[in-house]
Structure formats: structure tokens, C-alpha cells
Sequence to fold (458 residues):
Amino acid sequence: MLLMAASMSMPSESSAQSMTVNMRDGQKFNFNTNDIENVVFEASLKSQGPFQIEVSDITSVSAKLTVTPDDPDLRYYFDVCDKDDYEHYGAEFIVESYFTSIQAQYPGLTLAKILEASLSCGNDSDVVSGLPADTEMVCYAIGIDDQGKCVGEASAVPFRTLPGGDPADCTFDISYTGLRSTELTVIVKPSDPSVRYWMGCYSASEWPGDITMAQAVKETLDEYTTTYGKKLEDVVRGVTFTGDISVIESGFEPSTSYYIYAYAMDEQGEPAGPMFKKRFTTSSYDYSEAQLSLAYRYFDGDALAEAYPEKFANAKGQVVLQAVFTPNEATYNYAWALAMGDLTDEDVYPEYSTKNAVLQGGFISVPAKNLYVRYGKATFLYFAADEYGIDGQLGRTLADITPEGASPASAYKDLPAANEAYELPKFNKSGIQSYNSIGILKRINSKSSVPMPMRKCF
Fold:
């Protein structure tokens, strides 16, 4: 049967000045008939085959898909793609190409496991997001056999996403995690998920300026379209992003500063809004995931000597500091030390030589200890290593030990043995800092020639 995208109601009188279009998603649009030259009804895709498909809750970037098969025992695949792609490739080619690419990407998985994760049986529904705004789309469904081949006819229902917001108003929250010597994970969150944008990384020392950088990207896109005979709109759609992303970027130089940059891009590859940047510096070498967390508190020695004269007779004129270190699951062994003064300057106290000093004068795999110190600034230095002997990053925690910050003597408790649990309710807490480009040609060349699925079913 033919599915209409909208119904129209027009006044019976020939002098009527308005008409109402009632959309399937509940929206209503009013038009002045004097402004309308003609109305054209285009034949939509047929919903044929053994599936009933409903598309609802349509927004600029998402839609709810509901599929009801005539045969409740039939295994099938359903998804969304651009209407143009569907009409050009067809459901069979798109779906079978998808399974082929999954097998190549995960050679250790059997086809049976891939199909189990990807296929539906009986009534099913899903909400897809990350769709392009103001675009003709198609939701389709087709039966799949045990060899990953399409069987029977496909059912397809067209729909159009709503218009998106103004790209010029879109802002970008840029952050990163997993910083290493040659890679990191870039996290970008646009304020408007409907806006299509470009993201990249570039050397901070060679940054040519925001305008020149955007021009360089545009020139590369133009060159690619000319060389390979692609439409610029298709290339832009393939290499830009919408919505939140978390992408691993690699190929950086150690101990080098870079910018992560992002800006809204129109269909012609031109900037559609301001550029946003965040600077980062790669580490000098890669660290293990082994880490320590630190908790500490301290007591005035005179107060402890008065409260516990037998235990702390020698604490007069000093400070009794309790330190507890907790290793994470990746830690095999660790070392720590407490040095008087401020040793947080990495240029004055380089990591390599400071770690050696900790190994020579500190404590090895000692989880908790009472230390006798004096009032003033002191620096905890600590690091862990994994079972392969690879070090984690050196932690530096500056402690400003003052009489005002001392815990009352009544709060003192003995530290536990190494195998005992111990709660530190009023300790100052600290820990090792945890750090929370796709090149232009690299991303262009990785663009698939076959539409990739939009549902995250695998």
C-alpha cells in the first residue's frame, strides 16, 4: 500500500485563504493558499513484504522505530538509512555488506554470534539517534537466514527528520581522556545534536589561525571531490559528526602540544559557526594503568603526648602524620615517600630522577604508616607499577601542615595492619591525577562506500 506523509484539509469555498497540513508526527502547518502555486503528491516507498513498520516520535536527530512481522518466528534485521542510499543500493546489498564488514572487523566472532547480536525476532522497537536533520530517511526491515543472507521481500517506510537549529548558535564542550605519548581519546559534546560539525587535531606550535585552518580543511575536501569524482555534499556528510562523540586520535609526537578543534560545517565544507579549541600536551612516554590513592591526616605532637603519655612521649615538638595508600587493581607493587618542602615543580624535580629518589629513600609497598614531621609544607611522592614492571605516573600531593589543620587528639586511631580494612573519616584525600588527529585525509579515505547502520545493535 502507498503511505502518505501528510493529509491536507482545504476549505470548500473557492475564496478560502488558508490550508492546514496535518503531519504524521502530530505537527500542523498552515499555509496561505494565495502563496501556493501548485501541490505535488510524490509516490512514497511501498511498505511491502511481511512487516508492518511505524516511525514515530520524530525529532531533528532521532526517531522511534516499531516493527511487527507477519511471521513471529522470522529472524530479521531493521534499520534506518538515507532515502537516496536506500533507493540506490537496496536493503539486500546494504544489510549483507554490513554483515561482511562486521566479520572482517571481528574475525574471532562466529557468524552465529554476530547474527544473534544483530537480528530481531517477533515484535521489536528501537529509538535511533544521530540522524541528520531535515533529511528524507527510510526505515526498512528484511528477513535474514542463518548464513546472513537476505530472504523474502523488504518492507520500507519513508519519513523526514525535523529541521535542526542554527549552526551559528552551536557551542562545543571539548575534553579528552586516556592521554598517552602518541594518542588520546577526544570527547566532543555539541550544544545542539542536530548540527553537523568537523573535529580535528593540529600542532599548537604550527597553528595557522582559526580562519586559515578552516580554509585548509575546505581545500582538502575540494581536492578530494575533484580527484575521486565525489559530490562535496556526500563527502562532508561522511567526514563530519553530529551529537556527542568519543574518538581515539593517534599519531602524535611525545611531549608535544596540540589543539583539539571543532566547528559547525555546512554542506559545502564552509564554517557555519565559530571555532572552539582545547590544548593538550602528550606525555613523554606511556604509563601503566597502575595507580595509588592517598589519604592522610595529622596530629599535634604535644597534644598526643599529653593525651597518650606512654605512647607518644617522644612526639613533643613534632607532628604525627598518618598516611594510607590504596593501590588499584592494576598495581603489582608501589613506592612512596614524604619530602619536606614543595617538590611539585616538574622542571625542578623531573619525574625520572624523583622516582629514583623515592625508591632509594621511601617505602616499598607499605600501605600505611605513622610519620614524625614538623609544621610546614611537605610533598607526598608516590607511584605504582604493574605486573610487567611498567610504572604509572608519579603522583605529587602538596600538604600544608599547619596547627589549624591538625585533627584533635581524641580522634586518633592506630593504623591497621596491612591486611585490615580501615575507614579514614576525616582525612584529606588526594590521588594521582587521572586524565579524562583524525587527519583530514585519514578520515576521508576511511569513508565507507556502503551506508553503515545507524542502529547500535552490535
Remarks:
- Residues 1-14, 418-440, 446-450 have pLDDT under 50 and may be disordered.
- DSSP finds eight helices and 24 strands in the chain.
- The longest helix spans residues 210-228.
